[in-house]
Amino acid sequence: MDSIYKRLTEILVDVFDDDDIVATEDLTAEKVNGWDSLAHVRLMIQVERAFSVKFTASEITSFKSVGDLARAIAAKTGRN
Asked: Which pLDDT value is given to residue 78?
């Protein structure tokens, strides 16, 4: 999971243009300035590309934290 969180941190920094963001289990949209619906779409596109995965709309709306996203990536890629 460490490699997933490391790559998610890189993606978050890029999408939100904020070098201080760190992907953690409990990070949520409410804790990140500028994380609105458009930014969420950009984030999901970057995540899907980076990890070579696809999420359904229902999966995407079910993510309540970066931890949820990381677990879904792990499940789809077989990483832990």
From this structure: 87
